[in-house]
Design brief:
Layout (H helix, E strand, L loop, with lengths): L21 E6 L2 E3 L10 H11 L4 E6 L28 E4 L12 E4 L3 H9 L7 E4 L7 H14 L5 E3 L2 H5 L1 H7 L3 E2 L7 H10 L26 E3 L2 E2 L10 H4 L4 E2 L2 H13 L4 E4 L12 H11 L4 E3 L11 H10 L1 E9 L13 H13 L7 E7 L6 H13 L3 E6 L9 H7 L25 H12 L4
Parallel strand pairs: 1-3, 1-6, 6-7, 7-8, 9-12, 12-13, 13-14, 14-15, 15-16
Antiparallel strand pairs: 2-5, 4-5, 10-11
Helix pairs in contact: 8-9, 9-10
């Protein structure tokens, strides 16, 4: 299935009628100083559209971060060619930074589909929706969500609009003041949210379908070059810098049959690159992960698996590493945080566990280029010399260090500490939660320091 011609947005599901609402989901643009596509998909929105369709609704998707239509250079729709394993750049348009970020000496851009084409495509949507769901992936990307909500309000003033995702859930007071929409805070399948949604669009609420929240409407993407795997939602751990529990309080795991059906369906459409979106991929692997990985080499030969969300190193036993390698894992990301093992903010990891996990990966046959290690940078009160030590430590193993720039997230245990350490109004203005400004680093973002860290990551000048 190729991409449709501009400006077509297709509906999927039963024929619309009195008992079948039409629900349009929109993943808005990124507005930021930098953005790169690392197998990005709006998993929460796709879960919502899936459960609504399986409850009788007709659904459509407009993802402003996907090359939705066939390439039309004359319309400004040319999308950069995909890079390694389907990752790559977004098209972008430089825009004025919002007032709270005007102090930054960096270019600010809107990333994704051109705004006027999005507006034209929405205006051409026929029939019009009975409800619009807009998601937000990062709190500080809310300008794109507010913009697309305004477009929908202009086109269809009487159609209920819903704003969900990270910004709506974690910055509810700010969103209530600025968004012309009903706030969808937390999972749609939660009983109160489910009942309220159907009531607001004036339809009787059916029972939520089985596997709600874990089944995704991935088929709404035409001609995808990558896809995602979601075997669980939530996280059993409570890292101080993370708001996973505020976003999804439980830790739910799916079934191997459901996960395999999703992978096989996407594989049959030509997809070969799959990214795991699980926050705790290696927890209780017998539940779904091992049956799936054991089946993949025969059922989906040539598949390539990626773990952009860091795996927990302490779970990387020789058996785990061998099974991951045999199943087709090619992109390994690990969460080290720091080599100050006595003062950690995440799941407890000892030096012995780190060294054993690293050794087990190499013994299983992973190349050094396959393995990237996230090191937290910019925590409130952090001694950055410890970050330098961690970078050199990772490089001594031959792995590639990556700075995971700290984002102050409302709802995380560390957020109050971040508010006290930062000169910016983190609690009042989500734009100031942007990790690009180094919100908790004394002095904030600095080009000279950014260059120094880049060279250090590359091992230049040591």
């Amino acid at each position: 299935m190729g991409r449709p011609a501009f400006p077509h947005i297709p509906w999927h599901g039963p024929d619309s009628g009195a008992c079948s609402p039409r629900v349009l989901g929109i993943n808005p643009w990124i507005t930021d100083f930098a953005a790169f596509n690392v197998w990005s998909r709006p998993a929460g929105l796709l879960a919502c559209l899936d459960m609504l369709r399986r409850s009788g609704a007709t659904v459509a998707l407009l993802d402003c971060l996907d090359p939705t239509w066939e390439t039309r250079p004359d319309l400004g729709l040319k999308w950069p060619a995909p890079g390694k394993y389907g990752t790559g750049h977004y098209p972008k348009e430089e825009i004025e930074p919002p007032a709270p970020l005007a102090f930054m000496d960096r270019r600010y851009s809107r990333y994704g589909l051109p705004r006027e084409q999005v507006k034209e495509a929405l205006a051409a949507l026929d029939p019009i929706p009975d409800a619009v769901l807009v998601t937000t992936i990062m709190t500080y990307w809310y300008p794109g969500a507010l913009d697309v909500l305004d477009i929908c309000a202009e086109l269809w003033p009487d159609v209920p609009r819903f704003l969900g995702g990270t910004y709506a859930t974690l910055c509810g007071e700010h969103a209530a003041r600025h968004a012309d929409a009903h706030l969808q805070q937390g999972p749609l399948e939660a009983p109160a949210n489910w009942a309220a949604f159907w009531q607001l669009i004036d339809f009787d609420a059916p029972q939520p379908p089985a596997n709600a929240g874990l089944s995704l409407a991935l088929d709404l993407y035409a001609d995808p070059v990558y896809s995602l795997v979601l075997g669980s939602r939530g996280c059993p751990f409570s890292c101080e810098y993370c708001a996973s529990h505020a976003l999804y309080p439980r830790f739910d795991q799916g079934t191997p049959n459901a996960v395999m059906e999703t992978i096989q369906s996407e594989y049959e459409r030509g997809v070969r690159d799959f990214a795991f979106y699980d926050d705790a991929l290696l927890v209780n692997p017998d539940r779904w992960l091992w049956p799936v990985l054991d089946a993949l080499p025969e059922t989906c030969p040539g598949i390539r698996l990626h773990t952009p969300n860091a795996m927990h190193v302490r779970h990387l036993t020789p058996e785990v590493c061998t099974r991951l390698k045999a199943a087709g894992l090619v992109t390994v990301r690990l969460g080290l945080e720091t080599t100050d093992f006595d003062h950690r903010h995440d799941v407890k990891l000892t030096r012995d566990q780190w060294e054993a996990g690293a050794r087990n990966l190499l013994d299983a046959g992973f190349d050094l280029d396959d393995v990237g290690v996230y090191i937290l940078f910019g925590l409130p009160g952090q001694d950055l010399s410890n970050v330098e030590q961690a970078v050199r430590h990772v490089r001594s193993y031959g792995f590639r260090p990556h700075l995971a720039h700290y984002t102050p997230i409302p709802g995380s245990p560390m957020f109050e500490t971040a508010c006290q350490a930062s000169p910016y109004p983190l609690a009042d203005e989500p734009l100031c939660q942007n990790n690009s400004i180094w919100p908790c680093v004394p002095g904030g973002f600095n080009w000279d320091e950014a260059k120094r860290w880049k060279l250090l990551l590359q091992g230049i000048g040591e």
